[in-house]
Amino acid sequence: LLPQSKQSSSYSDRDTTEEESESLDEMDFLSRQKKLQAEAKMALAMAKPMAKMQVEVEKQNRKKSPVADLLPHMPHISECLMKRSLKPTDLRDMTIGQLQVIVNDLHSQIESLNEELVQLLLIRDELHTEQDAMLVDIEDLTR
């Protein structure tokens, strides 16, 4: 009888320990969930200002157009090219060679911007896929 009573008592100890560990796991899960929700809210709140700052930094880092170096005697043209606001009178005063340089520069800018756009779209698609997977995981966990 003694060995059996010891076994039964050890089983009851295990049961309470498992219940306690389950409740601890559940509390740990809930605290982690609340922490992650708070972090997500904070990140979402900061997303817009951070995006604006990033756009400003990218604008400042944008290189000066090589056309500006090719047209040093026309500084206002260089500035207009950087702002992308050329006037018809500016174009009328230029030679065909200068216009061709501007056209070639614009074509290269278009090509590089298209490549950048494709890369950004691929990254966006990957992020959307990750987000969908996370949402499915969250839905599974909340059930």
Automatic annotation (TrEMBL):
Q: Which UniProt keywords apply?
A: Coiled coil
Q: Does the keyword Coiled coil apply?
A: yes
Pfam families, alphabetized: SCHIP-1_C
For the region Disordered, what residue ranges are annotated? 1-28
Indicate the segments forming the Schwannomin interacting protein 1 C-terminal domain, all copies.
3-143
A single BP term in Gene Ontology: positive regulation of hippo signaling
Might you report a single GO cellular component term? plasma membrane
Q: List the coiled-coil residues.
A: 96-130
- Record field: compositional bias (Acidic residues): 16-28
UniProt xrefs under InterPro entries: SCHIP_1 (IPR039045), SCHIP_1_C (IPR015649)
Give the protein name, as stated in the record: SCHI1 protein
